[in-house]
Amino acid sequence: MRKPRELSLAGKIGAYCVLTLFTIFSIYPVLCVFSISIRPGDRLLTKSLALIPQDATLQTYVRLFTQEPFLQWMANSLIVSAMVTLVGVGLAATTGYAFSRYKFRGRDTAMVGIITTQMFPVTMLLLPLFIMLIKLHAYDNYIGLVIAYSATALPFTVWQMKGYYDTIPYSLEEAASIDGCSQFGIFWRIILPLAAPALVITALFAFMTAWSEYLVAAVLIQDKNLFTLPLGLKTFQSSMEVSWGLYSAGAVIVSIPVVVLFLFLSRWLVSGLTLGSVKG
Amino acid sequence: MASVELRNVTKVFDKKVTAVSAANISIKDTEFVVLVGPSGCGKSTLLRMIAGLEDISSGEIAIDGKVVNQVPPKDRDIAMVFQNYALYPHMTVYENMAFGLKLRKFSKDEITQRVNEAAEILDITHLLDRKPKALSGGQRQRVAVGRAIVRKPKVFLFDEPLSNLDAKLRVQMRTEISKLHTRLSSTMIYVTHDQVEAMTMGERIVVLKDGRIQQMDTPLNLYHYPANKFVAGFIGSPAMNFLDGELVRDDGLWFICQDLKIKMPDSRRQELESLAGTRVVMGIRPEHLSVKNTAPQTDGLHNITARLEVVEPMGNEMFLYLKAAGQILVARLNLTEKPQVNSDIAIGLDLQKAHFFNPQTEEALQVYTKQN
């Protein structure tokens, strides 16, 4: 393996400065939101530069969980996101494998067709999606959202899985078939474990597609009991005022599951998992 | 253990490219057969068809007397060692070796016993808990062999298993696989492009070119009685020297190649007589060339003058690259001193050992082929 290049002292200082700058750039908005969430009242702006104000309070968090149906929204989002993740990973893993390993008529056209659907903005797809889901009696329920989100996530994830499978040497499958594996056995016991990093990315992508989406949910969901988190948070904004405290507290809580999921899944994001299987 | 029979096996890719053409091979039980040939000759395709990894376009393959054309790889009771090892990277060495046995529902004790036994044979017991990425190339190849032998299959297939190893390790593994064959007394089919590997390991060798079997015989018979010019040139290192010329009757029998005029020895006159007046290719192995006075003057020795262009000292012997009659000749000699380059030297050709080939068909002319 190539040894990492040693930096000179000036180079190190420069690198750390740049990295610190970018870290602040990405963390500051999050800290700001957190800061707003612990300010009493709905104070969006302040003259103080302190990230944690002197009169900091967790009152908004208490209100969020006790006086608002936040847990209900969270449960809705979790259900929808989990279903989209399952459907997305299941379909992308199998479809990508078929595209990677099998030759069939129309394969290339199908691949291009799938990615072409990504080129349409979601606003353009909203109306046809809306009509279709009404006809499928999937309007204003979880199923409709799951179908819509899965359809949005799949093109990218299928391509991603296909690309990853392409890097797995075919001889591993041949060795497994000689060892006694069936076609499904090869996929299940050899290919899927090796594709773990791609599956993790797919899962994260599918989860986040559903977790933070607002526009499609706003069109497809009318029942307040089925509101997902983004829809719920929007209710804190009325025509006369915005509950910035609740809004920011909600935003902080919403981001936690994604961070936790990422931290949990990141250990599977090991590059070079196939290292050592075949002579490269 | 089992015999393997190939009857008119043909493989055509995409209805266009013929990779293997009507191959007929009969491999006896416990035999070690090597398929050898240059890149793209169809040797690996042939092996993959035996394994069931490639469909057969026409013909029949039988293992242990049973036709297996439609039998999937897992049910053929074969094991294969791949060129690139093909170890499962997410499994330890133990799991890699046990995988096939687990799928075949062997008991845990039986699996442990077999894996340990194989690990001991291959000296990899201390590596059983490691993942493939923590192994060297040689160790990975041992694990790949181990994965094959734990299954105790009817037939072992090796697809250029040593190509990725360095020269020293290759020689070591070569002898180990040969020892393994003796120990397991199993049928083994081994593919390589390296003729040295083929000669040293195979009980019989099948030489392939452009998807066709050129010759199938023991290593020594291939060397001494090549069926055609390709086999003659492929087997042996350095390769056989070839001279294009004509056999002419003129106070004896002469081989004429440009300004070279070589008199054929009387002892071979009778067998070559019928070829007089025809064009032939004479083949002579490098070790059958000698520097004047270094070989006993016998009936078959004919001296020519050649220009010495390059000398390659190998330690125990030297390779001399000579130019005579516009053709490059290689001599393999046992010399103590390095001769002067760019000088003319007298070279003796041992014509008793010369081979003759038809320049059009490249087939060996019957005069020197083995009489079965």
What does this structure look like?
The complex is a heterodimer of chains A (about 280) and B (about 375). Helix content of chain A is about 70%, strand content about 0%. Chain A is an all-alpha fold and about 280 residues long. Chain A folds into two domains: about 10-55, no CATH class; about 65-270, MetI-like fold (Orthogonal Bundle). In chain A, helix 2 (about 60-65) packs across helix 12 (about 245-265), helix 3 (about 70-100) packs parallel to helix 6 (about 140-165) and helix 3 packs across helix 9. The longest helix of chain A has about 30 residues, at about 70-100. In chain B, helix 2 (about 95-105) packs parallel to helix 4 (about 135-150) and helix 3 packs across helix 4. With about 375 residues, chain B is α+β, with helices and mostly antiparallel strands. In chain B, strands 6-7-8-3-9-10 form a six-stranded mixed beta sheet, with helices on both faces. A five-stranded antiparallel beta sheet of chain B has the order 13-12-11-14-20. The longest helix of chain B has 18 residues, at about 165-185. In chain B, a hairpin with a 2-residue loop joins strand 4 (about 60-65) and strand 5. Chain B has helices at about 45-50, 95-105, 110-120, 135-150, 165-185, 195-200, 220-225, 230-235, 265-270; strands at about 5-15, 15-25, 30-35, 60-65, 65, 80, 155-160, 185-190, 205-210, 210-215, 240-250, 255, 260-265, 280-285, 290, 300-315, 320-325, 325-335, 345-350, 355. Chain B has nine helices and 20 strands. Chain B is about 25% helix and about 35% strand. Chain B is elongated and about 80 Å long. Classes of the chains: A mainly alpha (about 280), B alpha+beta (about 375). At the A-B interface, helix 7 and helix 8 of A face strand 6, helix 2 and helix 4 of B.
